Amino acid sequence: MSRPIKRHAEIAGAGFSGIASAIALTQRGWSVRVHEASPQLRAFGAGIFIWDNGLHVLDALGAYREVLDGAFAAPAYETRTNGECTSFQAINGPGKQRLLTMTRQHLHHAMLSAAKRLDIEFVTSSEAIGASPEGELWLVDGTRLKADLVIGADGVKSKVRDSLDIPMQRERYHDGLTRVLTPRSILKGGEWDHVIDFWNIRPERTLRILYTPSGEDTLYMAMMAGLNDTEATAIPVNPEVWAEAFPRLRPVLEAIGDNGRYDVYEKTVLERWSSGRVAIVGDSAHAMPPTLAQGAGCAITNALGLAVAIEETDSLEEALQLWERRERPLTDHTQSRASELAASRDLAAGMDWNDIGLKAARHVPTGTSPEFSC
Ligand SMILES: Cc1cc2nc3c(=O)[nH]c(=O)nc-3n(C[C@H](O)[C@H](O)[C@H](O)COP(=O)(O)OP(=O)(O)OC[C@H]3O[C@@H](n4cnc5c(N)ncnc54)[C@H](O)[C@@H]3O)c2cc1C
Predict the structure, then answer these.
(1) Residue 367 carries which DSSP code?
(2) Ligand 1 centre and the CA of 152: distance in Å?
(3) Contact status, residue 231 vs residue 178, Cβ threshold 8 Å
């Protein structure tokens, strides 16, 4: 009896969407190889929020238990603007919205461990420079690798995407975030175990610190300042500039030291998410401002959704169409709401605790179990 031939995928990028794609395809009988441009497999950035939808996907990928062990489940999410509480929401309790916070390195490591358990091949220092719709991935050293499916999961500056003829819109906003990690021991317990979105709005300057416990010992702060505010966007962070607006956070601001990176809010919209045998996944397809903390959630949801669509259909062309038809409306909705919030600074009045803002968080992603609960 002849065995079905294993189909093969070449994936550019070992970030969250590349690893999720690799696991989901391997689980469905594919062979995959993941190319990472960096010399090491690691996550860049500081902390990350993962809502219920992302947790469902991590469960389906076999990474949830390891994510849970080391992540933080805050009991509440508050917004405080100019010293007044504008919103208070209990989270993570029975019947409440689930939202875990963690370091990016922790999430990446847990996903990588799940991938390694499946013997997925990763090649580091392997930079993709493009792909052909016929199913070739091109590497910087001149190698051309043939595959049944090529995935461009190489982030917001995707070379795979840019090599294809897919019309794209890109938008930048007037704000951005400096992300830092500091020890939690300085402020801990009681209110300091909450996620607190601090805003300081003055006619001359608006600053925001999203204070986020992200593990037993680690605090993540996402510090928002206008793109043109040279003092508040400077790296290293000047604690005096920030402590003037948020005096209670002075001890943690003084512990930041040299770490931190400022990224402006931006979004990318593609006319379509695939071309021939190439699928574009994650930030390369739909980068969004982090105002709803759903970029990675949508990225891994769509990576899993792609593998499920392929499993359900006979031809790759049909699968890619089904995938985009099924997954894209929610991503478009989330990206568009995240963009409105980035442009308006309306989060100063509180997180979007409603079906518009939490539509993605409350969605049970394709290929996951509705019964799953922590
Ligand atoms: C300030 C900020 C805060 C955020 N906060 C959250 C949050 O709390 N929750 C959330 O869900 N999302 C958040 N996001 C969004 C989230 O970071 C992204 O959506 C997510 O990282 C996308 O994953 P990705 O794998 O598609 O891309 P990336 O994480 O960018 O990974 C791409 C990978 O590809 C590699 N690579 C790049 N070019 C090449 C190449 N040519 N060849 C091979 N490899 C290549 C890179 O080194 C990297 O490893 C935030 C984003 C920002 C900017």
Answers:
(1) T
(2) 12
(3) no
Residue 14 alpha carbon, nearest atom of ligand 1: 49
Q: Pairing state of beta strands 144-146 and 205-213? A: unpaired
DSSP secondary structure letters along 205-268: EEEEEEEEE-SSSEEEEEEEEETT-HHHH-SS--HHHHHHH-GGGHHHHHT-TT--EEEEEEEE
- Atom index in ligand 1 nearest the CA of residue 158 equals 38
Residue nearest to atom 21 of ligand 1 (CA): 296
pLDDT tens for each residue of 8-52: 999 999 999 999 999 999 999 999 999 999 999 999 889 999 999
Claim: this prediction has a pTM higher than 0.85 = yes
Q: Cα of 31 to ligand 1 centre, how many Å?
A: 24
Peptide bond into 236 cis (omega under 30): yes
Coil vs helix vs strand at 117: helix
Q: Contact, 352 vs 312, CB < 8 A?
A: no
CB burial of residue 144 (10 Å; 0-12, 13-18, 19+): exposed
Question: In angstroms, what is the span from residue 353 Cα to ligand 1's centroid?
Answer: 25
Residue 252 Cα to ligand 1 middle (Å): 26
